[in-house]
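hey all, quick one before standup. I had two proteins in the batch that finished overnight and I want to keep them in one place so we stop losing track of which output belongs to which input. First protein below, input sequence then structure tokens straight from the run.
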Amino acid sequence: MNYLEKKYDVAIWRDVGYAQKPGYYCSYALPKPKVKAVADKRPRRLKVSRLNLRLDLYAPRDAQDDCRPTILFFHGGGFFFDDKESHSIVRLCRAFAARGYNAVSVDYRLGFQYNKKSMRRAEERAIADGLSALRFLCDHRDEYGIDPRRIILAGSSAGAMVALQMPYRPLPAGVEVCAVVNLWGAIPDLALLRQRPDLAIISFHGGKDYVVPPGYGSNYHRYFGPLSLLLCRKKYGSVRIHQEAKRLKMHERLFFFPKLGHKLYWDRKRQAENAYFDLIDARMTEFLADVVRR
């Protein structure tokens, strides 16, 4: 199987429960304007309850390979907004399932108080949930046709921060993460890369991304200046990840778009994907096919 061509119809398992955990919420469709969302979910109204965490699994129908590479996609939204129904993530899931992969869109816990410590806990909860989803899938590998040695983690923005950090946490026995897809994300410490020089990483980032800087800095620094440090710790974006990965001779690629901003495949006026979506999809397809066929 070459994993390049879309030749399968797609079967979907929706709302598969993978864990129950305490948290604020795990789904919040991005409203317009965002300011309304901040008012709706302001800290004094956040209450902890028992959450049913779910995922959607997209798989190639009638594929002969019953042990397939599997991609876990984590949506963006600053650990505050969105869910597994994110339009762009769903499109990517459908596309990669049609090429012969299992593709999984994962809900994870969202919400935080307005301080750095709380936001860091929100990030840690998301990583823990990602690991729980991975453990659930590998426990049901025979049911869903999952090859635990060909796991790929992918995410957009906050979701990319989850995907980038999961390979360096304790993984379920027998599980191997072979690649990470980083869509305008960042990592807190470049030293992590030295732990897995065999990991393949493909990154996409805009040079005018003022939400997650492509170099080194805190989220939203362009908008809030030093105040952003009250909420966000500094991180290393895709450019710095690329430089360190290249120094370590890792299998990696960076696609950098100097004139584009955050979530560069999305047209905010049309509220739809733009032409860069197809370019990103194509580059991901080539890179990942090379990894899983090795």
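OK second protein, same deal, sequence then tokens:
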Amino acid sequence: MAIIEEARKTSRVVAVKNRMNKTVIQVKNGERVEAMVMASLTIDCVIFGFWEGSLEVLLIKHAEGISEGKWGLPGGWITQEEHIDAAAHRLLRELTSLENIYLEQLKAFGHPDRFPLGRVVTIGYYALIKREDYSLKAGFTASEAKWFKIKDVPELIYDHDEILQYSLENLQKKIRQAPIGFNLLPEKFTLLQLMQLYEEILGVEMDKPNFRRKILRMKLLMDLGEKQRNVSHRAAKLYKFDDEVYRKLSKKGFNFEF
């Protein structure tokens, strides 16, 4: 019994050591309050967007702490009573004002030396969003929230380069197995825009006739019978995704190689 009681005491001590107080923002009134957070567990989010033919990622500049003035992925600490999914949404809202986004969990990143002040494991999330549907506003511990083209991403804090690279590789696998343009493109788009999305994600240059033939063969797109307006070049046809086909292909998947 003495051994069991000692083990319980040790467990309680370890539990206390694994918590610490941090400032968080209350959802109801937006006030900053002190809350107990997990001392060795954080969240980082990779948010992809597509704008003017380029794949982009959302980054924040830290306004305080050991990373002040440096760029990184939106993320932070998890409160003691919080579900990790809820924490991801809260942090994204606090730092960038983005809300109502479908976040998908990637994996845990836990190199012993990833955080300079001690052992901290981070859980990665990622999302694909239409930039034009959201307005950015930096808040909480972020002085800036900004979209960067993937090729122009600055040096990132900790292991955020590794997390971003893993997210991109995951996206490259996914785009070959399921349609994803619905999350990144406007409702009406051209075949060129869709091809540019694939080129940006996969990092390859595609043959336009070959891409057109393969994508149309899938019956995934609906020809709207409309063309672009107010463009300086020859107006191209506009398409949209067939919702029913999109859902079916998303569920069963496919092998889309170029």
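Flagging for whoever picks this up: Strands lie at 19-25, 32-51, 54-62, 71-72, 75-79, 104-109, 121-128, 142-149, 221-227, 237-241. The first strand starts at residue 19 and ends at 25.
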